[in-house]
């Protein structure tokens, strides 16, 4: 029991996997510790990219390409101290595997494709994965594709199970340009964009005086 009952509840960032069409939640993977930093890059999709294109200079073709990068630590020490049976047996393997399989086609799909190829099929379909959703508080819930994923395992138990590790994730936010409007991912992106717009509307407007001028010439 916490000695600070009135302390605020710490929210955790993490990932959720959804069935792409229905939005049924397949699994939720919280990060054990929130990252110290989170970097985001927005690549703007402007129409008038070339100098001198006066008609299109202020137009946008669509939402920017937003990429998110973070580093997070995971540690099995607390679970080992309480003799959690799964952690004692497997260390961090289950959590790392839950993250890794997001970027793998399933073994069943690979086996099916191999059988199709052996039977002479000319069309082998790429695997469809669950929809990955990045969650970092109630104001940041976005459909994403994991584009980079690295793991550094730093300590091991006597059975060589990892017990401390760092993970680095690179993600690209999926927009309605990627997913369309009629599926769960598209509606999640629109909610993500609308949340940005609502937060922007709450920003207190500044004054020209703060900029050292009295107005726009």
Q: Could you characterize what this model shows?
A:
The protein is built from six helices and seven strands; from the N terminus they run ββββααααβββαα. By secondary structure, it is of the alpha+beta class. The protein has a domain of 147 residues. Strands 2-1-5-6-7-4-3 form a seven-stranded antiparallel sheet. Strand 5 and strand 6 form a beta hairpin. The radius of gyration is 23 Å and the shape is globular. The N and C termini lie far apart (63 Å).
Secondary structure layout plus pairing:
Elements: E1 14-18, E2 25-30, E3 38-43, E4 65-75, H1 77-81, H2 85-90, H3 93-100, H4 107-118, E5 131-135, E6 141-156, E7 162-173, H5 176-179, H6 184-202
Antiparallel strand pairs: 1-2, 1-5, 3-4, 4-7, 5-6, 6-7
Key traits:
28% strand; 25% helix; alpha+beta; 7 strands; seven-stranded antiparallel beta sheet; 6 helices; 217 residues
Brief account:
The chain is of the alpha+beta class and 217 residues long.
